[in-house]
Amino acid sequence: MRVSVDGSRCIGCGMCQAAVPGVFRVVEKVSTVCAQPEKAQEGRTFDAANGCPVNAIQIIR
Fold this sequence. Notes:
Structural class: alpha+beta
Helix content: 10-25%
CATH topology: Alpha-Beta Plaits
Shape: globular
């Protein structure tokens, strides 16, 4: 699994960072991927992508 964030869509709400702090971090009001998810984090990463209010998180399997 590979994850990315479209910075032009992100509103920096921080929901993804709260869900998976080892994968996402809000920097200067935009979420960034600080590390690709490990196997144990994949479920929460999917939840973060599905819960993103502006659909800024992309997951490639």
